[in-house]
Design brief:
Shape: rod-shaped
Low-confidence stretches: 1-6, 221-245
Radius of gyration: 79 Å
Oligomer: single chain
Strand content: 5-15%
Strand order of the largest sheet: 1-2-5-3-4
Largest sheet: 5 strands, antiparallel
Order of helices and strands: HHEEHEEHE
Mean pLDDT: 77
Number of helices: 4
Length: 335
């Protein structure tokens, strides 16, 4: 059996470039492989299958004469090999293969470049994220430092304000204390003046009462006041007088020497004024009363002398064993 192979239609494409020796050899090899494939394929299809025998039995009434066997068919002629396609088709196929390879290489290069671009974008993104994180960390650190500095400044400001407030409070307290001290001093001076005035009034009343008693005693005695009714005495640094009795010479000096060590006065005085104190005594020398007859003009010195008289109680007795009822003592700061 003869089989006719249809020649495939020639593909339309660009004209091949001028072949080279290598391309020609490759095309020749491809055609040889194609020819071998076609040859063995046609031979396999044209071979007849091997025959098989079978024995058939029929009943006698249906038996017929045995037919003459048909001779086997002659073998089919060998298939005619298809003509080898020209070299131009091989070049076209080669060019198509090259184009496909080039396209595959280009696609691979494109994919590789896309992967590289993606990796570069990812690295850029990671770098940007790292920079943003570093900037955020730096901002947080700067904010924390600024907050700490502001807190320290506020603390220093608060401490300064507190110290200033305490200083003002101390100053106000000092002013208040000074005012209070001045007020107390004024009150003390006022009280001292009132006391001095009261003592002066008391002494004046006592003197008047004493004079009245003396006048009554003199009137009862029927005599006048004698020359020795008043005694005058003087000594270094002062003088004294006794009333209602005669003081022996030197008695006033003895009393002054007893009182003077008890005078305490430390203020500086440029002048040397005299303070005269009249003292009423009991016979045993006890001080019954005293009053300032003549002020020195310095209240501190006058008060110091009166205090010394109180501290010296009782005063010494006279030579007759009794103290005069009334004596006057004179004291000056520089004596």
């Amino acid at each position: 059996m003869k089989r006719t192979l249809a020649r495939p239609a020639r593909p339309q494409g660009p004209r091949p470039e001028g072949g080279s020796g290598r391309a020609f050899l490759l095309a020749l090899l491809m055609h040889a492989l194609l020819f071998a494939l076609l040859f063995y394929g046609m031979r396999w299809q044209s071979s007849s299958p091997a025959g098989s025998e079978a024995e058939l039995w029929t009943p006698p009434e249906l038996a017929q004469p045995t037919p003459t066997p048909t001779p086997p068919a002659p073998p089919a002629p060998p298939a005619v090999a298809a003509p080898t396609p020209p070299a131009e088709d091989a070049d076209i196929a080669l060019q198509q293969k090259k184009r496909k390879l080039a396209e595959a290489a280009a696609e691979k290069a494109r994919l590789l470049e896309a992967q590289r671009e993606q990796a570069r974008q990812e690295a850029l993104k990671q770098k940007q994220l790292a920079e943003e994180k570093a900037a955020a960390d730096a901002a947080r650190k700067k904010a924390a430092d600024d907050a700490a500095k502001q807190k320290l400044a506020d603390q220093k400001k608060a401490d300064a304000a507190k110290h200033e407030q305490e200083a003002q409070a101390r100053k106000a307290q000092q002013v208040q204390d000074e005012k209070l001290a001045a007020q107390k001093k004024a009150e003390a001076d006022k009280a001292a003046k009132a006391k001095a005035a009261q003592e002066a009034a008391d002494r004046k009343a006592a003197d008047q009462a004493r004079q009245q008693r003396l006048a009554a005693l003199r009137g009862a005695a029927g005599g006048a006041e004698g020359a020795n009714g008043n005694g005058l005495g003087s000594s270094q640094g002062g003088s004294g007088a006794g009333a209602g009795g005669t003081a022996s010479p030197g008695y006033i000096d003895r009393v002054r020497r007893r009182v003077k060590p008890n005078i305490t006065y430390t203020d500086a005085i440029t002048s040397n004024p005299t303070a005269i104190i009249e003292v009423r005594l009991a016979p045993d020398g006890s001080v019954m009363s005293q009053h300032l007859v003549q002020s020195s003009g310095i209240s501190g010195w006058d008060q110091a002398v009166q205090t010394a008289v109180k501290l010296s109680d009782p005063l010494p007795r006279d030579t007759d064993g009794k103290a005069p009822p009334v004596i006057q003592l004179r004291f000056r700061p520089k004596d």
